Known about the structure:
The protein is globular and about 65 Å long. By secondary structure, it is an alpha/beta fold. Strand 13, helix 13 (about 395-410) and strand 14 (about 415-420) form a beta-alpha-beta unit. It has helices at about 5-20, 55-70, 85-100, 110-115, 140-150, 175-185, 225, 230-245, 260-270, 295-305, 325-340, 345-355, 395-410; strands at about 30-35, 40-45, 75-80, 100-105, 130, 165-170, 200-205, 210-215, 245-255, 275-280, 315, 370-375, 380-385, 415-420. It contains 13 helices and 14 strands. Helix 2 packs parallel to helix 8 (about 230-245) and helix 8 (about 230-245) packs parallel to helix 9. Guanosine-5'-diphosphate (GDP) binds near residues 172, 174, 190, 284 and 317.
Amino acid sequence: MGKSTLFNRLTQTREAIVHETAGVTRDRHYGKSDWNGKEFSVIDTGGYVNNSDDIFENEIKKQVHLAIEEADVILFMVDTMLGVTAGDETIAEMLRKSGKPVFLAANKSDNPELHIETSAFYALGMGEVYSLCANTGSGTGELLDAITASFTDEGVDDEENIPKIAVVGRPNVGKSSLINALTGTERNIVTPIAGTTRDTVNTRYNKFGHDFILVDTAGLRKKSKVTENIEFYSTLRSVRAIEQADVCILMLDATQGVESQDMNVFRIILENNKGLVVCVNKWDLVDKSEDNATKKYEEYVKKQLEPFDDVPVIFTSTVTKQRILKAMEEAIHVYENRTRKISTAKLNQCIQQYVEEYRPPAVKGKFVKIKYATQLPTYYPTFALFCNLPQYIRDPYKRYIENRLRKDFDFCGVPMKVFFRKK
Ligand code: GDP
C-alpha cells in the first residue's frame, strides 16, 4: 500500500548523501533517516510479512504488537483509495491502547478528489491525518516535521569516554552466555529457547583492567509472543542496542556460518557507523582437524563482509571460556581505533605520500590535485580531502586512500569515510 515506498523515500535520500561504503546492499526493512538534522532509524514492519490472504489477523497483528512495544513513534499508513478498512480499525484499536505517539498517514491522496476522502480517517480516532503521496513524496515534509518535533533528546551522554559495548546477533548464538561469562553473574537468563532476552540495560563494569559499559539485552520475554516473529523482534532489539553502543560484538554460531540474518545485523552496524568485532562462537563444536581450520573460517567470514573486512574475528566458546576475554579486549581496542584523531600535519604528510605513489587517474585529460586533508570532528573517523575536481574521484581511489589510512593508523574494526570536496 506504499509503506515500502515511503520507507525507501525516507532512507534513500540520506543514503545518496552519506552512504559511502561501496558495494553494501541494503536491508530492505531497516534504514537510517534524517530530517532537519534529527537522525532516526526507520523499520518497515510490512517487510516481514509474507504475501498471503490469511496473514492479517495473525502475522500483522503480532508484528504491530511488537512494533508498538519497541518503537518510540509509530507511523500508521492507510490507503486513501481503499478508505477505512476493517484492518485499519483493528490496528487503530491496538495503537490507541498502547498510548504511544502515532502519526496517521493517508497515502495516495495526491489528487483533490482523493484528498477530500482522507477526512474519513479521522473516524479512526488517531488525531491529525497527514495526507501524502509516497510515490511523489508530496506531503512527506509536513509529516516528518511533525514526527521529528515529537522527538525528545533522551539518553544524553554523561559517560562520554567509557566504551559502550553491545553484544548483538541473531537468537541462540550465545549472546547471553557471553555476557554471563564476562560478568560472572546470572543476570541474563540463559535458556536454549530462542528469543528469551529482553530490555536493554546498560551496566558499567570495571573488570580486566578496563572501564566499560555493556549494552545488554537482559531479562526474560514471554516466549509465546515471539516464537513466530523472532527475526523481526530481534532486528528491533538489535537496532536499539546498536544505536546505543560504540562497538558491537557481532556473534555468529560457528556451526551455522554466516546467514542472511547475521548479514542484516552487520548492515545495521555499518549503517550506524559503529565499531565491530566478529565473534565466531560455539567454536568448541567445530571439527578443527583440518589444516588451518581457524584461518580458513576467518577468510570465509571476511569474504562475506567485503568490502568492510578490516575487522577482528575472534573464535570463542562460552562453554570452555576460550578467548572470552580476548573478545572484550578486541572491542576495547576497536573503541580506541574509532576515537583516534590524526593530527592535520601528520595526515597531510601521509596523504601526500599516498598520492605520489598512486595518483588519481586523469579524466578527460584533466588531473585531480589534492591540496589539503583534514579529519572531521565526528564520532567515527571521517576524512575530508580538498581538491580541484572532486567529481572525478571514483570509488576505487577512495578505497585506496581508505586502505592506506587503515594500514598506517590502525582503524581495524572501524567504519570510516573519506570524502573528496572542492576547496
Ligand atoms: P542468545 O539467544 O544469543 O543469548 O544465546 P544463549 O546465550 O541463550 O545461548 C543459546 C544456547 O547455545 C544455549 O543452550 C547455550 O548453552 C548454548 N551455547 C552458547 N554458547 C555456546 C558455546 O560457546 N558452545 C556451545 N557448545 N554452546 C553454547
